[in-house]
Design the sequence.
């Protein structure tokens, strides 16, 4: 061992002890004949001190230490004269007898401080230096702790962690697979799994009735901001259960995480909301319920007053922004421009200002008199001082725009406290989505998701309207407006599965080709089962109070799917290409 | 929940309780107007009973149940008249009121019993059915428990589990990488990691001084028996430590596993042996020390007696097989043929039989008289009743042949009890291996392995003989003759690293191209560090008392690297090939 203690360990009670520490030089400074060194390791920072008059040679050595040098020092713990109560070791310092440089360092390209002076690009290239900074270290510590607590909870609930393969078979449905050419099987490819969905269902068939895995998944998608080509899931499946059992089990897991990781006891059952209500009241299938500002539908109330825009609209709805009546005309105009951006997509916005004196002011005063505005305010439970914002258009699109506006107003008014946690289950999603272009239904989740038992008649009906109304026995776990988990009860009945393929327009041969071996497995006694998967990267980020996942992944890729530290992906040599029986048709790019 | 209890849970104390069970029909049998059903789930088997006279309709239903049907039953727990003390539920049975078939099953292609009637091939294709069998379930339960205990131990020792990427960059050195074409970066490829070696060293540079990960690794090698293209490692690294610290830490982990998984307390320190001694005494770098039968070198003793074969041999050595003097001439001849097989590679074998009466009989009586045979027996500490087997030839090759013979004799004499555990550290491996063909040194482990501190002078010497004698600061963990773990102290000193590249014949440009970014990382303050990795699949198999790993992997691949259940790898369609800018040059194979 190069050390007797870590840099986060010594306290006043250790005064007088001879210690050996090792770590990185955070900074050195000279003051009144003394040299002070902040020595850093994973556990904290300890102040070292050299007295020039007592040991001029040692002082000279200390003076040569640069930032990020790795040193081993020996000395005696002493009480500090000026204490620092912001760090746990702030009451002591170590008076040095010796300094040994274990490794020098060239000057790092950015400062290793909580707020670094380095930009995103350079910090990514030198990720191993960025990882020395406190915020990233805290993020990875949090991630380790969360994984450990998840495992402890699920193990205690008799779940078995079972590793499923990463070299599997490409499936034509869904997002793009990454593929892996096989040298031993020329012309053939493995695929990397988008999730272990098939395997966990096979494990249920195999009788492993409580499975989980913290597992890497891969998706070769065009990357949006904050998506990674490889990501981690907490993947779970249970047999002989109904929806209620799954929700209770994983609500328990979430509560254990809140308690053991964040020290928060969440009381009572997590709220549940149907997909329909989520859309109607929040304009989103992942509502942030840390604040109210629910959407109210105004379609019937405001039609027929000669305002053509409303009269022609299939749907009119609004949100009531508490205390925002103070918004100036300019601010409202700016908001109107904001909702007209393509990302929100509204055609315009109507406002009703509920003045403090009980009067109203609206952009559509011409069509709606004070009584009518009062009726709108009443319908929306608006109070004097509130600002009502109204959008109209096709139902779903308008609800989504209102949802986006609601989140924006929540942000502007500081209603989305990252240290407050509002978990929520969203249930009863539609099972099927009709696609006009291809004139067929698609599975909203995947073709193994079961319809709700009470909708089984509709599921076997031939009418499109009936099928559109069938709810899936599916559920999402939403935290602070972010979908963190999702799952469903799976179909275990052969007749229901057959009907599903029929509804999706697969011939028996199609279904056999695409899903043959799982259909076959289901012929050998499949138990009723269901499961859920959590996006672990995002779960960690939310627990850390952050919106982006990148800091919670040790070595993430950028938005082009590149690891800029490794400079991967990269070309491979012709020998390797030949061994794989592959030829590149990629356009030659000038570097 | 489809059940109130599992099939492994009910005891005599539950007699009289109304229960609901769900599971698979293991078997049904009729006896004296009663139908008995063995119902199985992950937790055990419970006997169900239907009385024909009391409920003829239910009895008819019971009669229709086939093997592996999934059923839910309700009934009352009752004491059995004829108890079965081989299973924990053997004192009770459940007298049924109702049976609901949750899913029928077609007849499985092999029996779901501890000893199945199915061959390897069919069981692999129906892996989800094979996994229902007890031996595989026990194997996966053991694996889950081992992973959980490893994590608990390392977490308690302040190790952080940090996930490293699976989509990385191909490195030209070492075994073949699997590669993954990048659609977003035409003509470029990711590689799947053979191990997280680089990343764990970067994490040490980043200051995460105790890292571990239970992680998948990938190697595109021609597969030998019992190798998998993807396998799992317990991968670990520590900073500010010396070899002793690493051995102690992971000896602690192994002891915790023995205790918590197998209920065995291993006393004292694990034995340690140098690579040289391992070769000299066991003819193997992974000795099985559950039994003695050490190799004795006889070169000096037996030369110069006119037996040309020995006189010309650079090395002569033997093993003494206790109590095997009874071996007949025929048995010895058979053994001689056995050592001459190419897998062992000896040219012949000499025996000395130590008769019970103190006399000797040898195949080389012509050259060695009784005194000389007695001297050999004395040198080998042979007792009357023992059989001495002697091989000769080049030193290393002959030692290895003796090592193989020793294991064979251990097997034949039943000295290798799978329920006995003999852990061992092998240390002081040579750092470098000279290759005559390319006339250069190769790193025996990898180019970041440190020389032992005391060999540093030799390491900087220009003489080939000196360099050949340099020991690596490396160590293997061996259990029952199998290498389960291996690691080393890494080079953290820039001068030593530079010398290593020089010794390996890399120019600075070469080294920069191959290892550039890690060399660069080491310029920013690399701490002294080292680590170890354990082959988790094999570790589990050994704990389960098995030699093959396949049962300890839920979905393994066969010796051709194929998943026969999935039928992977497989062709992909032209659209996907085009998107990846790839063309196949694979020979067209008639299917």
Sequence:
């Amino acid at each position: 061992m190069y050390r007797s203690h870590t840099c986060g360990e010594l306290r006043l009670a250790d005064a007088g002890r001879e210690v050996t520490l090792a770590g990185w030089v955070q900074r050195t400074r000279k003051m009144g004949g003394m040299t002070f060194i902040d020595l850093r390791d994973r556990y904290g920072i300890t102040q070292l001190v050299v007295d020039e008059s007592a040991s001029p040679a040692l002082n000279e050595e200390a003076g040569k230490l640069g930032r990020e040098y790795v040193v081993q020092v020996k000395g005696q713990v002493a009480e500090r004269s000026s204490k620092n109560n912001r760090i746990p070791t702030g009451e002591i310092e170590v008076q040095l007898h010796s300094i040994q440089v274990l490794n020098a360092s060239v000057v790092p390209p950015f400062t290793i401080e909580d707020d670094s002076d380095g930009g995103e690009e350079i910090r990514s290239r030198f990720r191993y230096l960025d990882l020395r900074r406190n915020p990233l270290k805290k993020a990875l510590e949090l991630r380790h702790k969360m994984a450990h607590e998840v495992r402890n909870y699920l193990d205690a609930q008799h779940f078995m962690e079972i590793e499923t393969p990463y070299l599997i078979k490409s499936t034509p449905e869904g997002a793009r697979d990454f593929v892996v050419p096989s040298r031993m099987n020329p012309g053939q490819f493995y695929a990397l799994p988008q999730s272990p969905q098939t395997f966990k269902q096979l494990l249920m068939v195999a009788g492993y009735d409580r499975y989980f895995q913290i597992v890497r998944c891969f998706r070769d998608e065009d990357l949006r901001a904050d998506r990674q080509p490889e990501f981690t899931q907490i993947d779970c499946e249970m047999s002989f259960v109904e929806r209620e059992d799954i929700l209770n089990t994983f609500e328990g897991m979430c509560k254990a995480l809140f308690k053991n990781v964040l020290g928060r006891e969440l009381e009572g059952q997590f709220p549940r909301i149907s997909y329909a209500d989520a859309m109607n009241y929040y304009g989103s299938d992942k509502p942030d319920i840390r604040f109210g500002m629910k959407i109210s539908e105004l379609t019937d109330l405001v039609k027929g007053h000669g305002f053509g825009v409303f009269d022609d609209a299939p749907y009119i709805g609004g949100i009531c922004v508490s205390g925002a009546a103070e918004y100036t005309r300019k601010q409202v105009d700016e908001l109107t421009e904001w909702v007209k951006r393509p990302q929100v997509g509204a055609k315009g916005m109507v406002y009703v200002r509920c003045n403090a004196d009980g009067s109203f002011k609206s952009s559509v005063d011409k069509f709606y008199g004070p009584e009518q505005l009062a009726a709108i305010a009443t319908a929306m439970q608006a109070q004097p001082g509130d600002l009502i914002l109204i959008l109209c258009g096709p139902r779903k699109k308008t609800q989504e725009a209102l949802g986006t506006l609601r989140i924006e107003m929540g942000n502007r008014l500081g209603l989305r406290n990252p240290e407050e946690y509002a978990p929520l289950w969203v249930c009863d999603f539609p099972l099927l989505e009709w696609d006009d272009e291809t004139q067929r239904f698609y599975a909203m989740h995947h073709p193994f998701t079961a319809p709700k038992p009470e909708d089984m008649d509709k599921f076997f009906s031939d009418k499109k309207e009936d099928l559109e109304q069938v709810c899936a026995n599916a559920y999402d776990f939403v935290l602070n407006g972010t979908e963190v988990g999702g799952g469903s009860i799976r179909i275990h009945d052969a007749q229901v599965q057959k009907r599903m393929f029929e509804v999706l327009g697969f011939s028996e041969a199609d279904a056999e080709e695409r899903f043959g071996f799982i259909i076959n497995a289901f012929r050998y006694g499949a138990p009723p089962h269901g499961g859920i998967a959590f996006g672990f990267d995002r779960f960690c980020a939310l627990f850390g109070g952050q919106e982006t996942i990148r800091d919670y992944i040790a070595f993430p890729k950028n938005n082009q799917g590149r690891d800029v530290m490794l400079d991967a992906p990269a070309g491979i040599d012709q020998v390797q290409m030949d061994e794989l029986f592959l030829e590149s048709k990629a356009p030659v790019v000038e570097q």
Summary: Residues 134-156 of chain A form the longest helix (23 residues).
